[in-house]
Amino acid sequence: MSFVLGVTGSIATGKSTVVNVFKNHQIPVVDGDVVAREVVEPGTEGLAAVVEKFGEDILLAEGGLDRKKLGDLVFSQPDERLKLNETIKPFIRKEILRQIEELKKKSPLVIADIPLLYEAHYEKELDAVAVVYVSPRIQLERLMKRNNYTENEAFNRINSQWSIDEKKQKADIVFDNRGTIEETKQQVEDWLKKQNFIS
Questions:
Q1: Does a structural domain hold residue 101?
Q2: pTM of the full predicted structure?
Q3: Residue-wise pLDDT tens digits, 4-30
Q4: Which of 68, 92, 103, 121 could connect to 28 by a Cys-Cys bridge, CB 3.0–4.6 Å?
Q5: Is residue 102 a part of any domain in this protein?
Q6: What residues form the annotated binding site?
Q7: Burial profile 29-38: b = 16 or more Cβ within 10 angstroms, e = fewer
Q8: Please, which residues have CB within 8 angstroms of residue 89's CB and are 6 or more apart in sequence?
Q9: Could you list the residue range(s) of the whole structural domain that residue 45 is in?
């Protein structure tokens, strides 16, 4: 029986740090961000659906999605963001679940790295959910520093997701990323050992 662990957090809470520990142990990862990009590649049903909703203005000259243009549009207007999410959600879900099923055949542990895991209700499809946690203050500071955002831009991005405290309360496992990267990695290693996925 394969165990499927969902890993989530919020923007700039350090989810990649945690996911990389699993990758370093050759544990397969389904990456929700990669899937979200793949389902709107040129020629996909997903891209056709997005163009149908938002018009051809959101395309680049060569036919790909103009992510910056679309991003600016949806982050400044919650209704538009909702419309985008509703449009591509079914394509993303179908592909994530397909990949999970494939990997379950090959590995005793599969990681589903899904940024909007709770928002899109994936928890029902998984055996457990781990949340990568930092305090909202640290989250804001890291995001401003990482992406060169103003405080307002960072707030808008953070507020487009559930709060990290809300996710922490729902989690089966919490990886606390308020300390050093080494401390965070150690928490993941400890969990893997405890579950007998590594020795």
A1: no
A2: 0.89
A3: 999 999 999 999 999 999 999 999 999
A4: 103
A5: no
A6: 12-17
A7: bbbbeebbee
A8: 120
A9: 35-96
